[in-house]
């Protein structure tokens, strides 16, 4: 397979198609959703840096809040896998299951990187001109 052939998108990583359809699937909806995607992804990896610091400092509640917020904002983008990974990590944090937190953190971070990648690709293909 060559790099010229795009891989099929995994709609469980990122899919705003249902949201776009719900909003009318027109230029105005595309403009609004493009802004939502840009705003949701704008922090980049900062939430993970903040949460990592909170975990190192044993501020589990703060880390849990960061992941909860991230799940809320990114979950609206159809990131089903990220939502599932975040819920597992949030549960481990709530239960103070410190032995499972590192691997769950790594899994969530990986899912988030995939969302950022796919969202960036979607924006390049779909964002309205001048946005």
UniProtKB/TrEMBL annotation:
Matching SUPFAM superfamilies, A to Z? Histidine-containing phosphotransfer domain, HPT domain
Q: What Gene3D superfamilies does UniProt report for this protein, alphabetically?
A: HPT domain (1.20.120.160)
Keywords attached to this Swiss-Prot or TrEMBL record, sorted alphabetically, are: Two-component regulatory system
- Any idea which GO molecular function terms this record carries? protein kinase activity
Q: Where is the HPt domain?
A: 48-115
What InterPro entries does this protein's entry cite? HPT_dom_sf (IPR036641), Sig_transdc_His_kin_Hpt_dom (IPR008207)
Q: Which GO terms describe its biological process?
A: phosphorelay signal transduction system
* Keyword Lipoprotein in annotation: no
Record's superkingdom? Bacteria
> Which organism encodes this protein?
Duganella rivi
Q: In this record, what's one Pfam family?
A: Hpt
Query: What is the protein's name according to its record?
Result: Hpt domain-containing protein
């Amino acid at each position: 397979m060559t790099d010229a052939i795009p891989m099929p998108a995994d709609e469980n990583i990122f899919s705003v198609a249902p949201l776009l359809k719900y909003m009318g699937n027109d230029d105005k909806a595309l403009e609004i959703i493009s802004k939502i995607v840009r705003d949701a992804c704008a922090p980049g990896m900062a939430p993970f840096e903040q949460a990592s610091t909170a975990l190192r400092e044993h501020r589990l509640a703060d880390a849990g809040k960061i992941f909860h917020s991230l799940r809320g904002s990114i979950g609206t983008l159809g990131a089903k896998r990220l939502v599932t990974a975040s819920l597992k990590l949030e549960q481990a944090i709530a239960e103070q299951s410190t032995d499972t937190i590192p691997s769950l953190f790594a899994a969530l971070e990986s899912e988030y990187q995939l969302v950022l990648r796919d969202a960036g690709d979607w924006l390049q293909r779909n964002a309205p001109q001048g946005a």
